[in-house]
Amino acid sequence: MTSSVLEAQKLGRKYGRRWALRDCTIEIPSGHVVGLVGPNGAGKTTLLKLASGQLEATEGAVTVLGDRPAATPARLARIGFVAQDTPVYSGLSIADHLRLGARLNPRWDAAMAQERIARLGLAPDQRAGKLSGGQRAQVALTLGLAKRPELLILDEPVAALDPLARREFMQGLMEATVEHEFSVVLSSHLVSDLERVCDFLVVLVDSRVQVAGETDKLLATHYRLTGPRRDTDRLPADQQVISASHTDRQSTFVVRTDSPIHDPAWTVTQLNLEDLVLAYMDKHTADRRAALEVQR
Amino acid sequence: MIWLTWRQFRGSAAMMAAVLAVLAVVLAVTGPGLASAYSAGIADCSTNNTCDRFYNLFFSQYNLPFMALTFVVLILPALAGLFWGAPLITRELEAGTHLLVWNQSITRGRWLAVKLGLTGLISVVAAGLGGLMVTWWSAPLDESASEGMALMAPLVFSARGIAPMGYAAFAFVLGVTVGILVRRTLPAMAVTLAVFAAIQLALPAMVRPHLMAPVTATFELGPANVDSLNIPREGGSAPQLFLREAVPGKLGSWVLASELLDPSGRVVPGGTGGTGAVINVSSTSGPCSPKSGAGAEDGCMGEVNRLGYRQQVTYQPLERFWLFQWIETGIYALLTIGLTWLSFRWIRRRVS
C-alpha cells in the first residue's frame, strides 16, 4: 500500500475567533507508525480530531483512508481514536467496557480484547475508576485496538503516565501493530516517547509541517557540523541549513543533505531524533523572528 | 447503545422506582380509608345539610399530607430535569468519555437519540405514575378543598392528571439542551432550574387563563360567595361586604375575578383582599342597622340582595379540567419537541 492514510489541504479550524489550526497541508503514507510531534498549542489535537471526524473543518479538506471523514457508522468503524488523557467510564467495570465495545462496533475482536486484559493482569470486574493512570490508558488502548480499525489515532496517550507505564503502553501498541496490520498516528510533545516506536515522523509547529519523513531517512540525512566560524551562505548549495549558531570563533550548523560531507574543516556528528526535532522547532522560531524583522 | 444507556442509568432508575414504590404502597394503604371516610361523612352531612362544615373539617384534617403530596408531584419534573437531564451530556463532557463513546462505530445522533429517548421516557413515566397516583388518592380531598386549593386552581391543577408528564418531558429535555450549551454540570443544573421555574410560574399566570374564554356569571349574594358583611356597631357609616373567591354551586372552579356589582350593574370597588366593598344601604334603621340584634347579617344580606347587589365572577369551571390538562400537556410536548430538535442540532455543531 502506497496510498496515504491522512491527507490535508489548507486545513483550518476556528474556535470562536481563535484559529486552533490554520492552513495545514500534510500527507501521511499508510503502513507506518507515525509520530506527530510539536510543542503545546501546535494544533496536534485539532488535526487529529479533524482526521477522526470528531470536528468539522472550518476551511480546507482532510482525507482519511481515501475518504472524507464523516460521521457514519461504517466510516467510524475504520478509524480508531484514543483521546487525550485516555478517558474511560469510571462507574463501569472493565468487562462493561468490553461489552460496550462489542455492542457498538461491527468488527469487534472480543477474543483479542479479553486476551489483552488478561495479559495485563487486570480483573475484568474491576471498576475503571479504581484503575491507575497506566491501567486506564491500557483499557482505552484495548478498546481502540479491539475495534480493529484500519487507522488508529492516539492523541498524547502517555502524556500523563509515569516512565514505566509509558514503556508498557508503547510496548503494547508495538506488539499490536506487529500482530495486526494497521496504521498508527500518535501525537506527543515528547520525542522520547516516540523514538522507539515510530518509523515516520511529522514535526508540526504552529499548524505548519516543518519536516515529515521516515525516521531512518531523516536520521541518515541530517548532520551537525561544528567548525571554525563561517557564514551560512558559504555552505554548499545541496546542504539545507536547518539551524545555525555562532560564537566568535566557532559555527554550529544542523544541515540536511543527501550527499556525504567531505569538508575536512567540519567535525560531523549524527543527530538523534530529539536534536533533530528541536532543530526544526528552532528553525521555525528563527524564521518567524526574521519575518518580523523584515516587516519592521 | 440501549445497553450502555441502561447500564449508566440503572442506578438512578432503581432509586426512582423504589421511591415511587414506597409512595404507591403508602397511598394504596391509606387511599381506601380516606375515600370511605369521605363518603360516610357526605352521607352523614346530607341528612342535616351541614356539608360545608364537613368539607372544612375533612380538608383541614388531611391538609398536611395533601400539601405534601401536591408538592412532591410538582417537584418531580424539576428533579428529572436537574438530576437526569442536565448531567446527561455534561457528565460525559466533564469526564471526556464522550470522546470514548463517539469513537465507537456509532453516530452522535444515534447516541443522543437513545440516551434522550430512554432516559426521557423513564422521566415521563415516573412523573406520570406519581401524578396519577396522587390524583387518585386525593380525589375526596379535591372535592372538599377550599377555593384556594380548588382542582382548577394553579397549584393543584399542575399536580394532577397528565400534566406532570408534559412537565417532566420538558424539564428533562430542557436540562439536556442547557447541558449541551453550558457544558458543565452545576451551572447547567442551576440554569435548568431557573428557566423551568420561570416557565412553570409564567404559564399559569399568563397563558392558562386564556386557553379558553373564561365564563362570566352573576350570582345572588349568600354564604357561598360572601365571606363577611360588617355592620358598624356605631350607626352612621355604611356596612362593608367582603367577597369570597368562589363560584356558588361550582366547586373546584378557578376564580379569575370576583367583583361586587351595585344595583345599576357597576362594579363596586373593594370587596376582595383587605378592603370591603361599601354597600349603599341605611345603617341607622332597617335590617342593616346594628339594632337588629342576632341574625342581623342574614337579614341585612337579604336586604342587600333585594336592593340588587350581585357577585360577578369570572372563572374557569371544573368541567374543563381534562380539556385543559390535554392542552397544557400538548403545549409542553411542543416545547419538548422544539428543544429536542435544538439539542440534536447543537450536539453535531457545537460540541467536540
How would you explain this protein's 3D organization?
The complex is a heterodimer of chains A (296) and B (352). Chain A is an alpha/beta fold and 296 residues long. Chain A folds into two domains: 4-206, Rossmann fold; 218-295. Chain A has nine helices and 13 strands. Chain A has helices spanning 44-51, 73-78, 94-104, 110-119, 133-146, 163-179, 191-195, 215-221, 273-295; strands at 4-15, 18-29, 33-37, 59-64, 79-82, 151-155, 183-188, 200-205, 208-214, 222-228, 240-246, 250-256, 267-270. In chain A, a hairpin with a 2-residue loop joins strand 8 and strand 9. In chain A, helix 5 (133-146) packs parallel to helix 6. With 352 residues, chain B is of the alpha+beta class. Chain B folds into two domains: 2-213 and 321-349, no CATH class; 222-308, no CATH class. Chain B is built from eleven helices and seven strands. Chain B has helices spanning 2-48, 51-61, 63-95, 97-101, 108-137, 139-144, 154-157, 163-182, 185-207, 296-307, 321-349, and strands spanning 215-219, 226-230, 240-243, 254-261, 267-268, 277-278, 310-316. In chain B, the strands form two sheets. Chain B has a four-stranded antiparallel beta sheet, with no helix packed on it. In chain B, strands 2-3-6 form a three-stranded antiparallel beta sheet, covered by helices on one side. In chain B, strand 4 and strand 5 (267-268) form a beta hairpin. The relative contact order of chain B is 0.12. The mean pLDDT of chain B is 89. Chain A binds chain B through residues 49, 52, 54-56, 71-74, 76-77, 79-85, 87-92, 96, 99-101, 103-107, 140, 143-144, 147, and chain B through 1, 3-4, 7-8, 95-97, 99-110, 348-349, 352.
